[in-house]
Amino acid sequence: MKIDSKYVGAVCKPLELEVTTRQCMNYAASIGDDNPWHLDDTREAGIIAPPMLAIALTWRISEHFNEFWEDADFPYEALARQVHFSEHLRWERPIRPGDRLRIEGKVAAILPHRAGTHLIIAYKALDAKENVVFTEHIGGLLRGVLCADAGRGVDVTASAKNKDTDNVLWSRKIHLSKFAPYLYDGCADVHFPIHISPAFANYVGLPGIIYQGTGTLAMAVSQITATEAGNDPRRIRAVQCRFTGMVRPDTDIVIRLSEREQTDEICRHYFVVLNDKGKAALSDGCVEIGPA
What we know:
alpha+beta; Thiol Ester Dehydrase, Chain A; ten-stranded antiparallel β-sheet; two-stranded parallel ribbon; 8 helices; 12 strands; 35% strand
């Protein structure tokens, strides 16, 4: 099977939605994040969403890909071989309950990869005043699908590669309960059967269900926010990583910060997340933190 880069620039139907308080609180609960910024609505300024709620909002498009991308003439059969490979998010401001957002999507890059093709879709969320709230570049690896040309577009996650992940500034061990995938599936409203159905996991060749990669990333962002940003999620400017290993429920993960890099008002925090085998489940991780 082949795909070429002629699809770069194709756009999807926009999605319009309103962010609710329940969504914000439930997403925090899905990863065990008790930050009062997300849960305490007695605060004078109210609550804000966990930054990673963004991926739950765009998932509504990804989950119904054929519906939103039907006018793009995209080769849907290639998507059957897709696994979540890369993630990059940038926020212009926090997401808040009551935000009315329009999410637009386009194919940002189609690039050759040694295991197939790296497909990157860019989603942009705009508020009622047409201001950008966040931008996501979500990358899927189309395993065994050959990129028929040199490719087009840019992999925005490449900037965090080749950092010294053996260096350890601090680390946190977190235990994932056997219910963790179900809690994330339900509370984050990000559903894919490989995370909750042992039968489906067996069907695709896995011995059992695996924990969601975006849930693992959200936990890392939460820990880095608490330790490096004074527990103030408004300071999170951008997050990126690659998904390079599986995490099983009822095991431990280790979030490890390896380097800080200060640039003007932004400090980049490079990290890796290890699974229970000591392998990198999340690689090339970086969280950008700015002033409040």
